[in-house]
Each structure stands twice: as structure tokens, then as C-alpha cells.
Design brief:
The complex is a heterodimer of chains A (about 220) and B (about 180).
Chain A (H helix, E strand, L loop, with lengths): L1 H23 L29 E4 L5 E4 L7 E7 L6 H14 L8 E7 L7 H11 L4 E3 L4 H11 L3 E5 L5 E6 L1 E5 L5 E6 L4 H16 L7
Parallel strand pairs in A: 3-4, 4-5
Antiparallel strand pairs in A: 1-2, 3-8, 6-7, 8-9
Helix pairs in contact in A: 2-5
Chain B lengths: L1 H23 L16 E9 L8 E9 L5 E7 L5 E12 L13 E3 L11 E6 L3 E3 L4 E3 L5 E8 L8 E8 L5 E8 L2
Parallel strand pairs in B: 1-11
Antiparallel strand pairs in B: 1-2, 2-8, 2-9, 3-7, 3-10, 4-6, 4-9, 10-11
The chains are: A alpha/beta (about 220), B mainly beta (about 180).
């Protein structure tokens, strides 16, 4: 019931966003190359602001990593855990493939992986995990449950770590990758299984928007 | 993209395998042979994803083509001991927080459930499954985001191009064996 309602709202949001995009169409100025003019991932109106939040970046000495891309860049954020054999490495591999297709623009897409299972994912474990996929990736980890929850809430991410009496741990988490622009706004979200080709096209489109300096648009 | 390509590849491979099986009739090649059916069971396009050095669990995928006229029941999986300590059949499920299964783990402790932006939140989790059935004539895909063979406690990181043997155990028949190739996606 709730899930359906949510799905419905997303659908509405997406359709509204799509109409908006079509409405702005040629005026929006996203005419670069043959790329689609519309973001194919999930979009939100208004785009959630996450740039005021941060988590410690264990791949950078534990310094705070704000959820905002460097100027002119995009930041892809995923929340997972390293004991996840299917969804998490699949997502990381997919984003890597999609980013590689950007060629020399690949370094304009930053990637961060936040662990929802900090008890098992120590700094070293999650750091090496992320660097295996992205040499320039950011591994985010906090043991402060309230901070993690605050960040997850801002992205609309759910997660749950359950350990039974025998010590067996089961983790649930939202399997979405989020694209954050250089204003700290979530400008797209890709569900698991989203085609890499479409991810690349979204990256190109969103990078082109940033290049055109549309900060503060609408 | 790669999913589509993979599907195409799998389809192609399946077609090839089915043709091959049809051609060679009942003697079954390396894919195990059907018992009591007219056809055979084929394991096609088996692959596992490369793993990070600190990744303790891996996943393998395969298409199971049941060319027999009987339901096939898979009861488990195994891989050589130098690959992983154990292999299990798992399923990735997506549910919403409202139907989350806190309590399914008994006296578990729960930390950090959150909900926020509409539509973003549905949770994905994994579950071990005891058996998987493939109806006569059907193909069951172990694939990312669905059923997968979970490799527990990897002995070494899985390296691109590496191969290893995967065995699927079935009820009422001989094991099915195939070669898994490790790749990025």
C-alpha cells in the first residue's frame, strides 16, 4: 500500500519533471550533441538539497566529505555494505562502466560509497573496497548512528542492520545511486539495474547543464 | 547496456546450447543429463563478478535451461574449497519499510531504519533459499538483482578471466556442473 503510494508519487514527480523538461525544451539549452534532452533516471521536483550534510571520508584521512560535487562536476553517491555480493558490486561496476564511457570527462564524475554497516565495514575494509572500484573514490563511514540516519533521511535511503542471536547479520538497504550536482542537489537517482548507457547519457546531460552555469536556475 | 548485452549473449548462448543439445540428443555434454525426461538440463553462461580484496562474499550467476519434461528442483550449490568456504542459493528481494521483516531473524537487534523522500526508499535485502524449481521447458536465470549463488568467505579475490567449477545439486538426479568465468559485469 505504502509502496504503491510511493511509487505513484515518484511516477507523478517523474512525469511532472518530464513535462517541465519538455516545456522548457529548446529554451533549456541542452542541445549538445545527440544526447537525450531529458534525464532518464528518477528526478524530483524540487531537487532535494543534501549539500549541507557530510560524512567522514576514510579514504581521505577521515576528513568531512560534503555531499556536493566539486565545481563543474557531478557526485554519484551509493549507500551499501561490503558483505553485499550482488547489488553493491553490481552497482559499483555499473557506475564505473558508465563513467568510463565519458572518456576524458570521466574525472568530472566523483563517486562516494557510504557504508550502512560500519560495524563490519571498518575504515580499512570499506576504504580498500571503494578504491578497488574507483582509485579516486570516496569511502564514507561513521559509527555515529544518528549522523548516518540524518544523511540517509536526506537522500530518502532506508537501511536496516539486523544481527541475530547466533551473530548472523542481515542487511537491508535502498539500492539507488544518487547524482548530486555542484550545488548539492540530488538531480537524478538510478535504481539498481538501470542501463549503463542511460547512466552515461544522464551524466553527459547533467555535466552539460553544469558547464552552462545554470546554477540557481528555477 | 551490459544487462541487455548480457541478456542477448545469454539468449544466444542458450539458443546455441539448446541447438547443441538437440543435435546431440540424450547424451548430455558437460551440463548434466536429465533423468527420466526426453531432454537435458543445461547450465549456460555461468559467470561471477570480480571481487574487491576486502570483499568476503562474491556472487555467481548462470542460466539453468530445463529441457526435460519434468520440474527441476535445485537444492544447493557448491564450489571448490579454494574458491570459497561455502556456496548458497540466495535471492535478492526488494520490499518497502512498511513490510520489513524485523523479527524474522528472531531476537535480533535493529539499528537504523529511516525513511525520507517519497519513492526512494524501498529496501533490498538478501535471503537464502532452500530450493529453486524450474518448470519443464523453462529457463531460470540466476542474475544480478535476482537469484544468485552466493560465495561465502572467498579464499582469494576473484580475478578477471579466472575460471572455476560450479556445481548445482538437484533433487532426484545427478549434480549439474559448469565452468564459471570471472568478469567485471
Amino acid at each position: 500500500m505504502m509502496a504503491m503510494e510511493r511509487t505513484w508519487r515518484v511516477a507523478v514527480a517523474t512525469v511532472v519533471a518530464a513535462l517541465f523538461a519538455v516545456g522548457c525544451g529548446s529554451g533549456g539549452g541542452s542541445s549538445a550533441g545527440d544526447a537525450p534532452k531529458k534525464v532518464q533516471g528518477i528526478t524530483y521536483d524540487p531537487a532535494p538539497q543534501v549539500g549541507t550534510l557530510s560524512l567522514p571520508d576514510v579514504t581521505n584521512g577521515g576528513r568531512e566529505f560534503p555531499f556536493v560535487a566539486d565545481p563543474g562536476k557531478l557526485l554519484v553517491v551509493f549507500f551499501g555494505y561490503t558483505h553485499c555480493p550482488d547489488i553493491c558490486p553490481g552497482t559499483m561496476a555499473g557506475v564505473r562502466l558508465a563513467r568510463d564511457k565519458l572518456g576524458e570527462d570521466a574525472d568530472r564524475v566523483q563517486v562516494a560509497f557510504g557504508t550502512v554497516d560500519p560495524n563490519r565495514d571498518t575504515d580499512a575494509v570499506v576504504g580498500e573496497y571503494v578504491e578497488n572500484f574507483f582509485a579516486d573514490g570516496h569511502a564514507l563511514r561513521t559509527e555515529d548512528a544518528a549522523r548516518l540516519k540524518e544523511v540517509a533521511d536526506a537522500f530518502g535511503v532506508q537501511y536496516e542492520v539486523v544481527t541475530d542471536a547466533a551473530g548472523k547479520t542481515e542487511v537491508g538497504h535502498s539500492a539507488l545511486s544518487f547524482v548530486v550536482d555542484d550545488q548539492g542537489r540530488v538531480v537524478a537517482a538510478w535504481p539498481f539495474g538501470f542501463e549503463e548507457k542511460a547512466m552515461t547519457e544522464d551524466m553527459k546531460l547533467l555535466l552539460a547543464r553544469e558547464q552552462k552555469g545554470t546554477q540557481g536556475d528555477q | 547496456m551490459s544487462i541487455v548485452r548480457r541478456r542477448t549473449t545469454a539468449l544466444l548462448a542458450t539458443t546455441v546450447a539448446v541447438i547443441a543439445l538437440t543435435a546431440c540428443g540424450s547424451d548430455g555434454s558437460d551440463a548434466g543429463s536429465g533423468s527420466g525426461g526426453s531432454g537435458t538440463v543445461a547450465l549456460v553462461d555461468a559467470w561471477a563478478r570480480t571481487s574487491a580484496p576486502t570483499q568476503e562474499e562474491g556472487a555467481a550467476y548462470v542460466d539453468v535451461v530445463n529441457g526435460t519434461d519434468e520440474t527441476l528442483t535445485l537444492t544447493g550449490a557448491s564450489v571448490p574449497d579454494d574458491i570459497a568456504k561455502e556456496a548458497q542459493i540466495h535471492e535478492t528481494l526488494t520490499d518497502s519499510a512498511s513490510t520489513s521483516t524485523t523479527g524474522a531473524m528472531g531476537d535480533g537487534s535493529t539499528s537504523g531504519t529511516s525513511g525520507g523522500m517519497d519513492g526512494m526508499g524501498d529496501m533490498t535485502r538478501m535471503r537464502e533459499v532452500a530450493t529453486v524449481t524450474v518448470a519443464a521447458g523453462d529457463t531460470m536465470k540466476f542474475e544480478p538483482g535476482g537469484h544468485h549463488i552466493m560465495l561465502m568467505e572467498l579464499r582469494q579475490p576473484l580475478e578477471r578471466g579466472q575460471t572455476f567449477e560450479l556445481t548445482l545439486h538437484r533433487r532426484g538426479g545427478p549434480d549439474l556442473t559448469t565452468t564459471v568465468t570471472v568478469r567485471d559485469a
